[in-house]
Structures are given as C-alpha cells and as structure tokens.
Amino acid sequence: VAQADVGFRRRSELAKTRLTALPAQELLERQKMFVTSRGGSWKAVQQEKEKQKKGSTLEKTRELLKEGLSLEKVAKKRKFALSTVVGHAEKLLEQGDEFDFSSYTPSPNILSLVKAAVAEHGFEKLSPVKRYLEEAGHRISYDQLRRIRLSVLSQTKPKKKEES
Questions:
Q1: In the chain, what are the helix, strand and coil shares in percent, each to the nearest 5?
Q2: Which of 34, 83, 110, 150 has its CA 20 to 30 A from that of 116?
Q3: CA distance 83 to 52
Q4: How high is the pLDDT of residue 164?
Q5: What is the per-residue DSSP string for 28-83?
Q6: What is the pTM of this model?
Q7: In angstroms, what CA-CA distances link 106 with 11, 19, 46, 95?
C-alpha cells in the first residue's frame, strides 16, 4: 500500500505540472469535460463558485453582528427566523468571534440558577438546564435560554488567537 501511495503521489505531481502548464481556456474546457463525463453538472459547479464568491451565510451574519446589529435586526435584514441567526451566533462564538450579547443577560437570580445548572449538566443540551430552572420555579422558553447561553458564552469564551 505504501509503495502504491508513492506511485500515486508521483503521478499526481506529474499531472499537476502538466495541467498548470496549460492555457487557462484549455484547462477550463478539460474541467468541464471531466465534470460532465462523470455525470456532474457544470452549471452546478458555477453556481457553487458564485455562492462561495458572495460569502457564506455565516460570514454575512458575522458582518452584520460586527456592525452592531441586534439578533432581531439581523434576522429581519436577512429574512431569517430568529432561531437561525441565534444558531449562527452560537457557531461564530464557538469559532472564537467576539460579540457583546450582554443585553441577554438575565437577572442575577436566574443567572445564578443557570450557572448552577450548567455546572451540573453542561450547556450543550438545553433540556436539562430548562428542567433545572423549572424545578426552581422559573418558566423559561428555549429561545430565551439560547439567548442566555449567547450572553454567557460571549462573556466566557476564549478569544480568537491573533494570526501571525
């Protein structure tokens, strides 16, 4: 297997050298032929390239949040459900982005209960936290709980490492 791998890598490098030497138009024609000969759609390839050029949906949400828009305003501007934007914000925080979601910080009483629930159950799943709060006599929706999680995460997540 290791011997075959060496051969594959050598042939791959040779093919790469030959392909990079081709004129751009000929390379494009070969790419089209390859995609269609394998049952693919060149139109789909072009649409995907356009989509990538425009930026990902997550990136668009990041830009709007960096401008200081609230979750509600981002949802309205993007014509998304608020839960979708909250999901984007959670992913962005996980990636190390910094946002100020302190406006979603609950009262100190609720916050202490949330922290106790998180210490016991973690914050990945909301059901155990919600149940903990309900047992303490507080009714809270999953949407409210997700916003509280954003608040807590935005204040406790390690910051993005500076690229060198």
A1: 70, 0, 30
A2: 83
A3: 24
A4: 43
A5: HHHHHHHHHHTT--HHHHHHHHHHHHH--HHHHHHHHHHTT--HHHHHHHHT--HH
A6: 0.60
A7: 61, 59, 47, 24
